[in-house]
Amino acid sequence: MSHRLPAAPWLMWVTDGRLAGGSGGGVFADALAEAAGAGLDAVQVRARDLPAGASLELVRTAVSAAGGRALVLVNDRADIAMAARADGVHLPAAGLPPAACRQLLRPGMLLGRSIHPPEAEPRGDDRGVDYLVFGTVYATASKPGIVPAGVEALTAACRATALPVLAIGGVTAANAADCVAAGAAGCAVQSAIGSAAKVSVAVAELKAALRSGWERRAATACTLNGRPYRLDGSLLLPELLARLGADPRSVAVELNGNIVDRRAYALTAVRPGDRLEVVRALGGG
Amino acid sequence: MSADDAFVIAGRRFGSRLMVGTGKYRDAAEMRVALEASGAEVVTVAIGRLNLDRPGERTLLDEIDWSRYFVLPNTAGARTAEEAVRIARLGRAVTGSDWVKLEVIPDPTYLLPDPVDTLEAARELLDEGFVVLPYIHADPVLAKRLEAMGTATVMPLGSPIGSGQGLRNRASIELIVAQAGVPVVVDAGIGSAADAAEAMELGADACLVNTAIAQARDPELMAHAIRLGVEAGRKAYHAGRIPVRAHASASSPLERAVR
User: Fold this and answer.
1) ipTM for the complex?
2) Cβ <8 Å between B55 and A244
3) B101 assigned to active site
4) With contact defined as beta carbons under 8 Å apart, do B146 and B154 qualify?
5) String of DSSP letters for B164-208
6) Closest in B46, B106, B109 to A103, CB measured
7) Domains of chain A, start order
8) Where in the sequence is the domain holding B116, given as residue range(s)?
9) Tens digit of pLDDT per residue, chain B (259 long)?
10) Number of domains in chain B
């Protein structure tokens, strides 16, 4: 079975173990079902304080409540993700090395990883990782005393990887658009959904904010090899390749899904919102 | 053995029955001499994103004199038929060749090819005029289906990519060889010269080798050894081996023994 990442921009709800544990399971299931119905893309079940048995129950509850509408990712615990047939595992920064975790998972399961500044540079071992969560972006009550990294650091983290990066930490409907405009593929929130008076309203507002950020980004940047690339207006392809330092004779360019004939480069403009792939030959068997 | 033991794929004649990959080499110098020593003409490359942080970087491939080799782009990295078709088109745009080694590998742990999506991608690529060399499990039925569809070869694996386990599926490869009307290229799993010779003795038309050469302690020497293995295996295949007997059969005339 294959589990696909949601299309950007996407929204992840990171649960709080206390909220979800014990007798709160029914409340959690209702909230998750409501959130999934309102367009939530993924839930990351985090229940570090629970014993494994209770954790498993909680994740099973989440899988059933999500009903295939939202992905269910399990924080830290590959064993529980496997046992509950969740969609994947989210590794904390101090969790298993991704390669080691990947070996434990069924083929096709998703694997995410948290990265925190100052060591936010993606590590070399992100083979097998499907997405990253970068934070803390804004000041948040759930991480008191942590100096927020800010949106510029988020942009740098997104530039440094071709993996989708979700922004986390103090993200609300008021600033989610900024995160996406800065290069994030979406946001991960805790209290913005978990403490909301009405879960479905909170999810809808966050999703609307993500979409508006996505539109803003499409107006100022193209997506180049999976990463946002800032463009001020349009640019002819030879100029863009020259800016990149790429040799036009050794690359191929795909613009919005169509390969551009080399003879047509000089006539081809790249505009904000375009999806661009620049590829070359690499060693392979 | 006929003097003309031509190796022909899609109407194109090749002088060497060893094809080599360009992955996993430690440096450009090792790759250059290994390619030379292998005697190979067909050399595979992967297609991937330009490194935007170092777009002008020279890679190992920049050190190769491509006028001497026949470049065969692969679709490595494709997990589905759709991705494979996309990568094949990009490979054609990069290399200018409409030949493609088709590989569709959904799972990075075992690196086994997906037969359903390989078939689907092959159909699409053939429609688009590609010369398709599909990498497959040693499945004789799938091999026939691909051949009927019009693929230029079939490329069954001996064992998982990079494993060096040799031929773990002799019987299946023998069946593929027995039925095939297109060249059979054993791709993946060859660990040393003996494995290559074994594949050729079974009747494979060629071998594709990457890791066994690139990661050998001395890639140049191993490239030469595997070249000789391929040649030895081919000659033995033509020579016709003796049947395997349960008992000994004396080589010297026992009836005239001096006792």
Assistant:
1) 0.84
2) yes
3) yes
4) yes
5) ----S-HHHHHHHHHH-SS-BEEES---SHHHHHHHHHTT-SEEE
6) B109
7) 10-221 (3.20.20.70), 231-280 (3.10.20.30)
8) 7-256
9) 455 788 999 999 999 999 999 999 998 889 999 999 999 999 999 999 988 777 777 777 787 888 889 999 999 999 999 999 999 999 999 999 999 999 999 887 778 899 999 999 999 999 999 999 999 999 999 999 999 999 999 999 998 888 889 899 999 999 999 999 999 999 999 999 999 999 999 999 999 999 999 999 999 999 999 999 999 999 999 999 888 888 888 888 888 888 8
10) 1
